[in-house]
Design goal:
The protein contains 2 helices and 3 strands. It starts with a helix and ends in a 9-residue tail after the last helix. A 3-stranded antiparallel beta sheet has the order 1-2-3, with no helix packed on it. With 87 residues, the chain is of the alpha+beta class. The longest helix is centred in the last third of the chain and has 20 residues, at 59-78. Bound molecules: zinc ion.
């Protein structure tokens, strides 16, 4: 199932420790959706009507997000999925 490949799990932000789940977007990119009420979003695609992008609330994360996306892309190409994407 493709969905499992494109689900990048949950991570605390290395800058501010806010938890988020990396979700693919409709445009083929990725965004960090913040947890709500201590729970990760259950969706497998980012929906701006439903999710809060952590990039809006965290300047250092917004600044290094291109790097994270690059790492995700590399890992997707290699089919490697670990829990160290944001470190
Ligand atoms: Zn942050």
């Amino acid at each position: 199932m493709k969905g499992s490949i494109r689900c990048y799990g949950n991570f605390p932000c290395k800058h501010c420790k806010t938890k988020f789940k990396i979700l693919p977007t409709k445009t083929g990119s990725w965004l960090p959706a913040e947890w709500v009420n201590g729970k990760p979003p259950e969706d497998e695609e980012f929906d701006s009507a439903k999710h809060i992008s952590h990039l809006k609330n965290c300047k250092p994360r917004a600044e290094d997000w291109d790097k994270i996306k690059w790492i995700i892309r590399k890992k997707e190409q290699a089919h490697i999925f670990g829990d160290d994407l944001t470190r």
